[in-house]
Design brief:
elongated; alpha+beta; Nuclear Transport Factor 2, Chain: A; 5 helices
């Protein structure tokens, strides 16, 4: 099995505190990030603008809106391409629960000799014909790791993917080299240009 330094894993562990449960049956947009910052307004004077990035599960769209904090007026709204933004605390907690409730994965977790942790949350975007995690989805990659005592490394049980668009485990044994973000054609082309081998080229 693969081994990973424990120190690096701590940075990506999902938050342990309680979160409001996500309602995957709802088509309401989810706020992924929001920030208020001072900018130069249309008249040249300082203004406070709120920048908000949301994910719309009904349309499979990421949207960024800019609002005037004082008046509430929308200054700009734009649909973004699929973006590499990690899970919100609510999404991370929901993914943990989905993985632990999955029949196949829960059996593997239960059979482990040592305590198990689910860590990660790395975004995954693949091409439209890849079968899963294409444009419009909101996929996250997670490691299921067995924490071996008295060792600086953990053993990987499985590398899995959860699509947070509808709350589904879509890959229970992902091969990150053949099925990860490198499967994206743009990244593959860039890798070839830099002389890097791409595993699926020979298939």
């Amino acid at each position: 099995m693969h081994r990973f330094p424990l120190l690096a894993l701590v940075l990506f562990a999902a938050p342990a505190f309680a979160q409001d449960a996500l309602d995957f049956s709802s088509d309401a947009p989810r706020v992924l990030h929001t920030v208020v910052t001072e900018v130069k307004g249309p008249d040249g004077t300082p203004a406070m603008y709120r920048y908000t990035t949301t994910y719309d599960p009904a349309r499979g769209e990421y949207v960024r809106t800019v609002e005037d904090e004082a008046s509430g007026a929308t200054v700009k709204r734009e649909v973004l391409p699929s973006i590499m933004r990690g899970p919100t605390p609510e999404e991370a907690e929901a993914a943990q629960q989905l993985i632990k409730a999955d029949v196949e994965l829960s059996a593997l977790i239960g059979a482990a000799e040592y305590p198990v942790e689910v860590v990660g949350g790395f975004p995954l975007v693949r091409e439209a014909d890849a079968g899963f995690c294409g444009p419009g989805t909101r996929c996250m990659q997670f490691d299921i790791l067995e924490m071996v005592p008295d060792q600086r490394a953990a053993r990987r049980i499985r590398f899995v993917v959860v699509d947070m668009r509808r709350g589904e485990v879509v890959a229970r044994d992902l091969d990150p080299e053949l099925q990860g973000n490198l499967a994206n054609p743009a990244i593959r082309t860039d890798s070839r240009a830099r002389g890097l081998a791409f595993p699926s080229d020979s298939q």
